[in-house]
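Listing 4. Sequential folding, example run.
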Amino acid sequence: MGGKIRPLYFYVELKKGYMTSDISVLQHFKTKYAFVDEFGAFGFDFEKEGCTTHFIITAIIVDEDDLENVSIKLETIRRRYFQSGEIKSSKIGKKHQRRIAILNDIKDLPFHIFSFVCDKEKIFENSGLRFKKTFYKFLNDLVYAELRTYFTSLVISADEIGANDYLKSFANYIRSKEKPLTLFDQCTFRFANSKHNNIIQIADLISGSLAYKYDKKMSKKIDNIDYQELLFDKIFRIDYFPKDFDSFMVPEKDLKPDYNPLIANLCYRKAKSFIDDYSLSDNDETKQQLIVLKYLLFRFMNRSARNYIPTPEIIRQLNYCGYSNINTRYFRNKIIAKLRDRDVIISSCHDGYKIPSTEKDLYAFVNHERRIIEPMLSRLMRCNDIIKMGTNGEIVLLSDPKYNVLSTIIKQQQLTYD
């Protein structure tokens, strides 16, 4: 039981986005491993015993260099709590102090969590998703698209054992995607047995733990335990379906006093519109913009304090997704500025960036930009005046029609000072 990761994986390896004859370009890719398991089952008769209100898919993301270390340490944890058995959420059940202890023990290990949460109660009867095959394919499309968007080199592993309809469907779906995206793509399949793979067991544990937050039948069984909050620092991203703004609103009692739902709603929708419009883009800059925006939205939707996110933290997310050569200047000019050019509203100050939810957030951005723009205008105005005076009015830098906007702004500045 447990032990090192065996070589029998179910996986697809993806190297995308680079068309080059220089093999050294590929050296910067750090392969990520995604170990997948799920909570819930197909079905919409919610009065029926065993019919869950939510379907949760979790991928535990581990760097290739950390695989052995994570597996060895998980084996120690598995032996401590489960002796000869697997780490399984169903075995822990409603023993929440035991569950919390196990989650706290694994939190320091180098892995991240990607989860997809589907609220089955919000799926309309005539949507077509109440047919099992369509439902599974739809989920597979979303999960696979998210993982491919984020990671340039990826190995996906899932359990081959048992009669799990969803994981069989997922395996078949990945097989159908074995088409190289570039000359350097490699796509391969094998299977893993969760009995010999501790990291897949953790995917089961996380999915089952998050069910106590989302699934209505499960959440009734606990009080004052938020497993998502407990795991927040390990969560790379949680995606939701169906997507609607109301489902992302934090409870009213948790909101800051100056929270403005009108501002929050407008800013969220502008961000969501960009994601909808550009989610299928193959352009690297746009992909980077999507990664940053989705991370800003994740923080916006999952932390009531909604603090500013420091630039290094956001750049680390880009690094983690395979974009390792992002510096601060590139981040500001090619990602944040370009998002703003496309009408995405992002507030910034010396503490970082965020999606605004208060008037204070908006004015923080205005004041931040003002501190940059006004000194620049002042320098330009002085330069124009010096040259004009020094040449006895023969050279007026801002007289060219293409500088009309600048000239108007500067004239207004002079009138204000006068």
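-- end of first protein; second protein begins --
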Amino acid sequence: MIDDTIKLLSLEHLETLIETLDVIHTGDKIECQIQLKRQAMTCPYCGGSDLHIHSYKTKKVIHSVNTRTATQLIIRYRIQRCTHCKRTMSEQFPVTDYRNRISMFTQIKILESLRNHTKTFQAVAEQFNVTAQSVINLFDDHVQPQRLPLCEYLCMDEFYTGKSQKHKYALVMMDFERKQIVEIYDTRQKNTVIDSLYKISLQERSRVKAVIIDMWDSYKGVINSCFPKAIVAVDSFHVIWHMNEAIKSIRIRISHRFKKEVSNLQANDMYYYMLKKFHFFLVVDYDKLASSYKIPKLNTYYTKDNLLHYLLSIDPELEAAYKLKEAYRYFNKTADYDTCEERLDDLIHQFKHSKSYEFKSVYRMLLNWKEEIKNSFIRVNHRRLSNGPIENINSQIKTIMKSANGYKEFERLRRRIFYTLNRDTPIKW
């Protein structure tokens, strides 16, 4: 019977040390009273081996092997006294260290649970029947991740840290190939980031061949200052995003001509209704659209071909803008590094002469970031350079912060992100 209880409590490593074990179940709590066998000890002060029992003490240890029921080990141990130097000493605790009130088994399980980016310190504390502060203290004591070495291909992006922090945005650097976080800085301010990176040796910084960023000029300045051999690549998603924002502005401007409240109404409000209800048709990849859609106002269905044709027939300017945007999307999907420059120059020329003034900003963007856009077509191990991996990381970081309702201490947030998202982050004992 005692063997089964020992296995149930995951105390197999203590089997040879336990003299007696009694389990008492009281309501929603389990108490395990353990008497340890007397240990053969040597006096740590004088080295004598002639010791006798001076007194007995008990120690209560949280041992949440069953997370549905609070489990507590009540360990009775001896205080032994050296007959030579008269000093006293306690027997060793095989469950935890002398000062800790949580078993080593429970500590490991708590730290394992914190690997889940959706779990908060409070949720883990409730799961293992300990206080939230105990979980935080355990995390702070045992999770101390260090910066990873700089790699050849870096992703660089920011995430919002909230109003409680000194800086609203923090900077993340990620290994493009291994998809691991390299470092997190508490700000994206150019000079501060440069000062931090200068603390890394020039030899290590010279290893970086390319850095992928969104279109933030400060990042380009950081890269040019700190990574002497690196080129800059712009994430293609952000280029498409700017074009979709321009298309959105064009659609809204044109649709307002058909709105009933407008004094110079050009037609009935059906055009306005269709452009507003099916706004996503002009920005979503055509292949990702459903095959047909219901038009509630007409109580009928349109295929996606007919619906797109209808939307583009409303205005020639909208049709021309959509086709130009789709031409760039096709270029973005099919071009390669060696041949993209000529095609990109042609598209820049078309945006420059577009009749839609909203595309003037797109033209300037393409012109200013032409070389960086071209670099984005470089492939590493058959993968095009992009910030896709770090965008996924940012999504999980948002979940970590949202679940916890924010973090007051940035260093704790940094360590939680490292520990949760870099799965091989070691635990310090």
